[in-house]
Amino acid sequence: MRVINFNAGPAGLPLPALERARDEFIDFQGSGMSILEHSHRGKEYEGVHDEAIALLTRLLGLTDSHQILFLQGGASLQFAMVPMNFLPPGGSADYILTGTWSEKALDEAKVVGSPRVAGSSIGPDKRYTRIPRQAELELDPKAAYVHLTSNNTIFGTQWHAWPQVGAIPLVADMSSDFLWRPTDVSRFAFIYAGAQKNIGPSGVTVVIVRKDFMAKGRKDLPKILKYSTFAENNSLYNTPPTFAIYLMRNVLSWIDKQGGLTAMEKRNTAKAELLYGALDRMAGFYTAPVEKAARSTMNVVFRLPTEALDEEFVTAAKKARMVGLKGHRSAGGIRVSTYNAVSLENVQALVSFMESFAKSKG
Ligand SMILES: Cc1ncc(COP(=O)(O)O)c(C=O)c1O
């Protein structure tokens, strides 16, 4: 029997996407072999690859101005590759800090050039519990780009309205909330997302790049580190992570069948309202540290009255077949990751558990 999976990533995947993989695993479409065994240059794999791109294009309503790329190396490689390609020697780029992952992106940019911090919501205790307001941002109009993290997986905050950045190209790490709702991609010069939270297994990173921005990228880099190499070869310059892309195709097809991103938004909003509503109702027992306007719909963080109770909560939840609730090792407490694959019923089950736990201990 499957558990209710609240893991932060790799995270739970929609059951129909896994069942489809199981059914097709040994003999893919009558070809006599698994998709894992097919050449990435063969028509079977290319069909899957192109379908994944077509599904993403349709779900996001992408136009010809942007191109989708599939890369490896996780979002962490993007922390380095973005400045390598787009931070010119002697130039500067702006970083908005909202958590650990944006700090890591900034650190990699420092290796390449001279990035600036254009805004930060770090608190005196080094925790991030909010998103900077527009008036707090000090943007450099000459910046090569502005980088932000759309959802902060560890601290449970999320941008709900994009900052105004004028003509500066906007770059976003959307690893933990990619495809959670419809997104106006035209606002972004560059988006990247590791698949293993909302759209698939680990091993593939989706990049969406505006073509005129990509054209400005540095040319004097090794081929494998240039976005243009992937763009010119439909992400088939070298062997792509074929199985990860195949499984992502299954997840994208599931999202499409559910009604696309509008349906995802409805489902994710209902889950977040239910969970935050419960936390607010039981505020005497559970403490949710994030400022209300910045609450993440994907990673909901809270604490119990003591660390011992946090631990007891996680252990008791596991007995009730709910896993993945322990907060990130750097943040402590509880974290509930409610990505697209988590259903409203899953969150209802957790809320009932939280109510009885609070009653028994409170
Ligand atoms: C927002 C965000 N960015 C980047 C990363 C790092 O991703 P990866 O492990 O794929 O390099 C994570 C991982 O949890 C993340 O949540």
Give the strand order, joined by hyphens, for the main sheet: 2-10-9-8-5-3-4
Instruction: Give the percentage of residues in beta strands.
Output: 5-15%
User: How many runs of DSSP E, i.e. beta strands?
Assistant: 13
Mean pLDDT: 97
Oligomer: single chain
**What is the terminal separation in angstroms?**
32 Å
The class by helix and strand makeup works out as alpha/beta
Helix content: 25-40%
Rounded to the nearest angstrom, the radius of gyration is: 21 Å
Give the overall silhouette: globular
Bound molecules: pyridoxal-5'-phosphate
Helix segment count?
Answer: 10
Low-confidence stretches: none
- Element pattern in H and E: EHHEHEHEEEEEEEHHHHEHEEH
Major sheet size, sense and barrel closure = 7 strands, mixed
Would you kindly provide a written description of the structure presented here, covering whatever features stand out?
- The chain is α/β, with parallel strands linked by helices.
- Helix content is 37%, strand content 14%.
- It has 10 helices and 13 strands.
- The strands form 4 sheets. Strands 2-10-9-8-5-3-4 form a 7-stranded mixed beta sheet, sandwiched between helices. Strands 1-12 form a two-stranded parallel sheet.
- Strand 3, helix 4 and strand 4 form a beta-alpha-beta unit.
- Helix 2 packs across helix 7 and helix 8 runs parallel beside helix 10.
- The radius of gyration is 21 Å and the shape is globular.
- Pyridoxal-5'-phosphate binds next to helix 3.
